Sequence to fold (211 residues):
Amino acid sequence: MASPSPNSRNPRRSIWPLVAIFLITLAPIVIAAVLYYVPALGFRPEGGSNYGELIHPQRPVPPAGELGLLTLEGEPFDLHSLQGKWIVMSAGPSACPESCVQKLFTLRNSHASQGKDVHRMTRIWFVLDDGPVPEQIKDAYVGTHMLRVDPARLAAWLAPQASAPDAEAALTGPMWVVDPLEHLMMEFPADADPIEVRDDLRKLLRASRIG
Fold:
């Protein structure tokens, strides 16, 4: 009886199954790295920090009678009529100096840059005196609700920490956000970075299913 040849006793095994197993194991790591390090693919997680300061506790929109808002034409205006919208707000004197214009510009451009979500947001400028609003401001910021209000009444909601003599000063710096459920929920600092404001608003709209 012939003995088996050495080749038949120890058949040479292919390494390709091991290579395939290695590649299958490595694939999820490679895919995850590509998705993370190529932001253009849209899968990289965004940072969790906010530029604006979250307000705790959130403060509800006051009844219309507490604010006494008036349009530039002298008609009463109720903030509750904007329920269901994200509202971005600033305040300033009717003459609207450069710092006031910068805030109006920031909020208008942040709003306009929201793409398909632009309809979910609206803008308010609170006018803190009875003076005339320049026509240039009216023309440049069409679409912004321009509402006259007594500074002390507005500060009771937006800046309750401010004393009565300091009410107007406390209102002319920040910008604010009200959510669609009518809660004051975020404040941006004076001289806020327009890009950071835009990005914060974009995050809010993307994360929210309301409004």
Summary: Residues 16-37 form the longest helix (22 residues). Residues 23 and 30 are 10 Å apart (CA to CA). The longest strand covers residues 53-60. The mean pLDDT is 87.
